[in-house]
Structure formats: structure tokens, C-alpha cells
Amino acid sequence: MSDKRDHQAGNSGLPEGHGDDDWGVTRAEPEWVGVGAGTPQHVRRERERARRRRRRRGMVLFLVLVLLLGIGAFFIAKSFIDDRRPSPTPDYEGTGVNDVVIRIQEGDVGTDIATTLVENDVIKSTAAFMGAAHGRDELASIQPGYYKVRTQIPASVAVDMLTNPELRVGAFTIAEGRQLDDIVSTTGAVTPGIYTLIADATCIELDGESTCADPDAFRQAVASSDLNDLGVPEWARAEVERAEDPGRRIEGLIAAGRWNVDPSGSPTEIIAELVTRSARAYEATGIQQTSESIGVTPYEALIIASLVERESQPEDFAKVARVILNRLDIGMMLQFDSTVNYALDTVEIGTTDADRGRVTPWNTYAMTGLPQTPISSPSVEALRGTENPEDGEWIYFVTIDLDGTTMFTNTFEEHNRYVEVARQNGVFASGR
């Protein structure tokens, strides 16, 4: 018995003196009593720290979420505002690329001008031009015509260039009574003719290179071009076709007034535009209808108007027209010094016997009837005076002083008395 107990005791691993009754039964873990009973203090502290960590993580996540939502809202709002906000007006910068000539048409307003500039790559947008032009009163003074500007320039610079009169090109004026060729007086003074005026108007400098047409190029174009290409109106075709001097056959068909030509145009193109627009101006006076009422063709009315222009002052246009018609009716020579001078290299108020004796297509001392062509560019006023001549039986007239006072008479005797007055006043003084 003792051996068995000893064996069991040795195998139990328990201290001596404790029997099976004391240690053979499994016991529960000890329980804490007092404050915090049921949970160890270090466990509570650990759990509290864990809760604080979770709260902090939650707060961080919340703040991150709020931040992300704020950023998102910002970009959404910005995108909305940007969509509603107008884009910057497209405009060029710098001093431009190349010189270019643009045309402002009759009746063009600001938007029309802007469109022309955009089409020629002068400015980038019409909006930029209209913005730059706002408040610029001088823009209203822009006249129809041609202007030298540069491509790809800021709209404000374009406005400056268009309002700079020095940059207007191709503009010139034809005075009343001017003829195609230059007029040289007996004193040597030269009055530029229409061909010279047109040639001067084509002179231009583009990108540092100057060009200028020669007056003779226009004369050659008139002499060699088809009448259709020259813009000759139908009512003048037959007479123009018969003209003996091809270079002068469109005399009178370019009206007096202010003109604009494209410096880059060919001589034929330039002449055609001038003749076409002049024909419209003449037709607006009723030349095709009223000429018939005075017994002449429209082209003959234009010839008479050119004589009226060269022989009288505006206040006498209608009277001189009546004298011409009266002489034509009785088959009397017109005998106008202006028709003699037209064929001369030099001109003067009083012509010589030799000059008056020369037979030319225009010299009315050497033939009856009208000159073959007009002898100048008449004004619209001269044409209206021709179409509406004043009533009277006058056959003669003479300017009696240098102020232009003109006397109209029915008899040769009375006319000669006034001729003597004119001579005494130096009207017929010759430079020869």
C-alpha cells in the first residue's frame, strides 16, 4: 500500500502533506473584489485607449471626407463658373507679319469692317475689333476706299491704322474739266491728266518695296482692251468704237469727283471700275431719257456737257448749253477755243489763226457739229445743265473779265462789242 501511495505522490508533482481530498478537485479562477470588480484595471485602461484611438481615427476619416467633399465641391463650382464665364476675346499680339491692302466698301459699318479685317487675317476676331473700337469717335470718319494695314495685328492697332489718313491708299480727285492726258500751258506749267492721277494713286510701299504704275500703261490699256473689259456703257459703244485716237476714246467717260482705286489692280481693271461707276452716275441724271428731249444721243449730251464744263462757270452752264444747241440747230460752227486746245501740246485761252485752222477730230473752227469725243470729264452739274438748257435765242457768248463774267447775245455786232471789252480786260492775253 505504501509503495502505491508513494508512487502516486511522486507522479502528482504536488508538495507533500497535501492529499487527494485537497487538490484532486478542479477549482475556478480567483475573482477580483472591491473597486473595478470583474475587470482587471490594466484591461480597462487598454480598452479605453483603444476607444480613444478609434475615435481619433474616426475623426481623421471624417475630416478627410469633409476635405475631399470640399475640394470636390470647389472644382464643381469652378467648372460651373468657368462654363458661364465668357472666354477671353481672341486677339493677336505683336507688330504683325506682312503689309496688306484692304477695302472698305460704301455703307460699311463697324461689323462689316471687322469682318473684312478677319477675312484678310488682319485681326483674329470681330469681337476684339468692336471692343477696341468702342468709344473711338474717329472710327466714324473712316471713308470708303483702300487702306494699308498689316496681317495678324492686335485689334487696337488695326483701329489706329484705319484712322490714320496717311495709311489710306489709292485715293485721288479728278477736277471738273480735267482730260485724260496732261495739259501743258504756254508758260510750261503742267496740269496732270487723269492717266497721271490714276498712276500716282497706285504708288504704294508694301513690306519695304515700292511700286508705282506708269501713266502710259493706262493709255495702252484703253487703246488695246475690249470695250466690254473697259466697262464702256452700251449707249456710248458705237461712238467710242469709231474714235480715231484709241488712247483717248474713253475721254469724258470717267466723271469728275473723288475716286478710290486698288493699287494692286491692273490698268484695265482700274479703268473699268472708273468707267462703270461713272456711267452709273451719269445715268442717275437721266441722260438716256432727257437727251432725247433735246434732240441728241446720250453720248452727244456727254460731249456737250464737256464743252459746257470747259467754256463756262456753273452759273452759266444751262445758258451755254442752249447756245450750243441753237448753233447745232442752224448748222453753225461752234468755234470753241477749248476744242482747238484739246489737240495741242500746249494750251492757252486765246488760240492763234494757225491753231484754229488745223483740222482735227475735235477742232470746231474747222468743222460743223460736235467734236468726235468729249474733251474733258464733265461734272454732274454740267450734265444736268445740258439736259435742262435755259430757254433763249442766244447764239454768241464771251467771257469779258478774269472774274468769269459772261455775256450772251443774239447778234454778231453785239457780240463783237463784248469781245473788245474782253480784249481790253486781258482775257485773250497769250503766253506765246
Question: Which short descriptors sum up this protein?
Answer:
disordered N terminus; three-stranded mixed sheet; mainly alpha; three-stranded antiparallel sheet; 12 strands; 3 domains; Dna Ligase, domain 1
Q: State the helicity in percent bands.
A: 40-55%
How many structurally independent domains?
3
Q: Taking Cα atoms only, what radius of gyration do you get, to the nearest Å?
A: 52 Å
Structural class: mainly alpha
User: Within the largest sheet, what's the order of strands?
Assistant: 1-2-3
Overall number of strands: 12
Choose one word for the global shape.
rod-shaped
Main sheet specs: 3 strands, antiparallel
CA distance, first residue to last residue: 184 Å
| Overall residue-averaged pLDDT value | 86
Number of helices: 17
Question: Summed up, what is this model?
Answer:
InterPro entries: MLTG-like. The protein is built from 17 helices and 12 strands. By secondary structure, it is mainly alpha-helical.
Explained architecture:
The chain is mostly helical and 432 residues long. The protein is 45% helix and 10% strand. The chain is built from 17 helices and twelve strands. Strand 5 and strand 6 (190-191) form a beta hairpin. It is rod-shaped and about 155 Å long. It catalyses: a peptidoglycan chain = a peptidoglycan chain with N-acetyl-1,6-anhydromuramyl-[peptide] at the reducing end + a peptidoglycan chain with N-acetylglucosamine at the non-reducing end. Functions as a peptidoglycan terminase that cleaves nascent peptidoglycan strands endolytically to terminate their elongation. Residues 1-29 are annotated as: Disordered. The chain crosses the membrane at residues 59-81.
